[in-house]
Amino acid sequence: MSVGAPRALASSGQKPITEILHPLSAAEEPLSATVGGDKQEVGLTNGTPVETSSPASTSSLFNRLQLDDDLEADVRDPYADSSETRDLFVTVDDPKKHVSTMETYITYRVSTKTSRVEFDLPEYCVRRRYQDFDWLRIKLEDSQPTHLIPPLPEKFVMKGVVDRFSEEFVETRMKALDKFLKRVADHPVLSFNPHLNAFLTAKDLNKRQGLALLSKVGESVKHVAGGYKLRARPAEFCAMGEYLDTFNQKLGTIDRIAQRILKEQSEYLTELREYGSVYSSWVGSEDELLRPLEGVAGCVTTSCGALEDLGENMSQDFLPVLREYVLYIESMKNVLRKRDQSQAEYEGRLEAAILRKQEDRTPVEVEKCQDKMECFNADLKADWERWQSNKRQDFKQLLTGMADRNINSYEKSQAAWESLITLLQDKQTEDKTSETN
Amino acid sequence: MMADSGSNEEVAVIGNTDITSTESESNIINTMVERETALLRKMEINVAEAEKRTGKNTVNMQETYTVYLIEIRPAETVPGVGAPAAPDTLWRRYSDFELLRTFLLVTYPYIIIPPLPEKRAEFQWHKLSADNLDPDFVERRRVGLENFLLRVASHPVLSNDKIFFFFLTEEKGWREAVLETGFQDKADSRLKSLSAMFRVKNPDKRFTAMKQYSDELNTVISQLLRVRARVADRLYGVYKVHGNYGRVFSEWSAIEKEMGDGLQSAGHHMDTYAASIDDILEEEEHYADQLKEYLFYTDAVRSVCKKHDLIQYELEMAAQDLVSKKQQREELATGTVRVFSLKGMTSKLFGTESQEQRESRLAALEQSIQEGEEALKEKNTECQEFVQMAWEDIERFKEQKDKDLREALISYAIMQISMCKKGIQVWSNAKECFNKM
Fold it and tell me: Would the keyword Transcription turn up in this protein's UniProt record (chain B) (predicted)?
């Protein structure tokens, strides 16, 4: 089937890119993606644009086919730059409201396209609700305790304060869920987790409630059981903790500033609207000045529109990403704490073993603990690097986005005023020529 | 007689939007100057400087006040030939200008006298101080006073006034000269015309319409200035809050490795952005000043219309008086009482008067009627002359207002474009820095 095809292609050696088939077009129905083209066509056949949060573009899809070395390299070293070897694409979109007698809730379509062996089919399409994402996250945390799991958007919203079914809320949440899933799918280890597989493929996530409860209990038990005290945290992990604390603080400040700006802009907008309406009302008393006054009123209105869009964009795209990173930081700190515990446990057991004077060889449990700790340290360091790199890209995108939106807003306004001047100038030369005639 | 057809006027055509608003403002002044009066053909007028003085006032108390330097230069017949002559200068304070204006108001009640800049700052947004000694306020007042002098000097009637000429040329003896004209006597009657409530039976409809228009203009410009001040306040807030990004980006860059430089420089651009609003709003004050001039102009228009009402009323009173006297004569002559008069009633009750008495009364009445007819003729002429001269000036004013306000709106549009361009520049710079993160 199509699963084997890409490998066959790859082993045939390097081919010029135009000759290499789109790997996903190896499936029976041709995708609307054309070879070498359509970057947009990631993961969806219905044409809706997909927002990829990772900077790795879909053209890397083609890179992946050139050298089978890369493929194997990917399997060998889970931390090789996965942007060159992506073979799992996920998207969250198409929110729908479900009304039942018990409750009302939203589901999202989760689409998967993959060439991985671990998946039976190359494409999947399932519907999931927030609860299911939450389940997935918990399972991932439990089964991969040494890894950083990306955050989910806030779970609880105060009913009556926030409309859970408003278009904006659903849109924002969906984007965050999409980002979450993409980050998991991009992770060289997490993406192979069987729970993710189940999440992406199963028609029904069976017994998820029970499992969720169980795993929650399990989690808290783990936290209680870690009663060991940490001696000396290695410097690099200390540095990570300090960085996270400071970064968290700065993000909080930026969030406050952004909110303040939104507030000031909204108040400015209110006054600006009234300002425009005064010009409109002036029009009634004038003859010669009619056109300039109407023109000014029009430009002010255009500027108001541009400002409104800016505010909406900032509150829908900018603020949620900031908040998500705060959650990410919390996750990361959690992982650091677990690492500390793992080290503490190892040190504790080692000390106990020494006290019991087992000198001939270190007992197995102590060795196991040491292994566990060292694995944890390695995973954490690797995840940290990847997180830093992703963070850099995410913030670069976020901030350039903010700059772009502001530029856009000014450009709209400038265009309106410039066309007014042209209009008035034309009238002026018109008048001049009619006067001299 | 100045031809105001506009055919010999250079309309300031703005060919490119890079013209600054100060250039546009000087376009307004230029068009005034080019409307050549005999006075302006002879001399150039400037209010060059402002200085603080202290002295004793009329109640012998120390006070601080500002004086303004008026410079008169002979108008250059051949520009650029020879060194420019040293100007004749004298100092005047605001109260001198006020006295001049009051003189003009009283002496030319049929002319719309140009207004002075405001005595105390009104319609301020919070940053600008309302202090009369504030250097920015003094500077704007200096410009306003120069504007006033140029308006008078370019007026076809006012520019020929001797007192105005002395104001520009005689520092010492001017006040005495003004007071010697005895204009204060007329000042009382003018006040009467402004405040009195009287019903005019047949007002000239054009004046009624003009009065209504000037009231409307007054209302709308006041509103506009009020809202504009609030808009300025809000805009100030938006820009300044962005300065906080500068600080937080700087702090954040300290904990980053690769992102640090980009963040730091972007922060500087945010500081620049926040600082840019000061100049932007300062420039906008010029626009506000142009609007204010016309706001104050509406008072002058109103007082001309009111003067017309008074003269018309006096005319109607004189006509009515004559009619009633003639009726009295008729009654005396024919013996019929049509109009009630006390004398008539008492003579009916207490006996008719003698023939001599009647004849002497008739003679006195004839005299009175003759005087009345003279007075009516005079009043009629006065009224007609007033209407003619006033309406001519109103037409001139309307044309001037249309042109000036049009220029003001265009220069406002240019200011907005400039503000947009600056905003785009700063955000583009910031975006470049973000891209380097």
Answer: no
CB proximity B209 to A under 8 Å: no
Alpha-carbon distance A241 to A415, whole Å?
49
* pTM score of the predicted model: 0.77
Residues A354 and A18: beta-carbon distance below 8 Å: no
Structure confidence by residue, pLDDT tens digits, A148-185: 899 888 877 666 666 777 888 888 899 999 999 999 99
Please give the Cα distance from B174 to B180 (Å, whole number). Answer: 10
A vs B, Cβ pairs < 8 A, gives 156
- Classify residue A314 by its DSSP letter: I
Among residues A389, A305, A434, the alpha carbon closest in space to that of A55 is found at A389
Q: DSSP code of B196?
A: -
3-class SS of residue A356: coil
Contact B410 A292 (CB under 8 A): yes
Q: What is the ipTM of this complex?
A: 0.84
Q: Which amino acid is at B204?
A: D
CB contact under 8 A, B413 and A406: no
B349: Cβ contacts below 8 Å, ≥ 6 apart: none
Number of CB atoms found within 10 A of residue B122's CB: 13
Residue A214: which residues within 8 A CB-CB, separation 6 or more?
Answer: none
Distance (Å) of CA A363 to CA A231, A345, B39: 21, 14, 112
Please name which of A89, A131, A139 lies closest in space to residue A108, comparing C-alpha atoms. Answer: A131
For residue A414, which residues of chain B lie inside 8 Å, CB to CB?
416-417, 420-421, 424
Residues B176-216 pLDDT 10s: 888 888 888 777 666 666 666 778 888 889 999 999 999 99
For A79-104, b where at least 16 C-beta lie within 10 A, e where not — what string?
beebebbbbbbbbbbbbeeeeeeeee
Tell me the C-alpha distance between A246 and B122, whole Å. Answer: 47
Q: Is B30 on the interface with A (CB under 8 A)?
A: no
Six token digits for residue A167: 């278009």
Burial classification of residue A44, based on how many CB atoms lie within 10 Å of its CB (0-12 exposed, 13-18 middle, 19 or more buried):
buried
Task: Report which of A314, A278, A313 is spatially closest to residue A294, judged by C-alpha positions.
Answer: A278
What's the first-to-final CA gap in chain B, in angstroms?
A: 70
First to last CA, chain A: 84
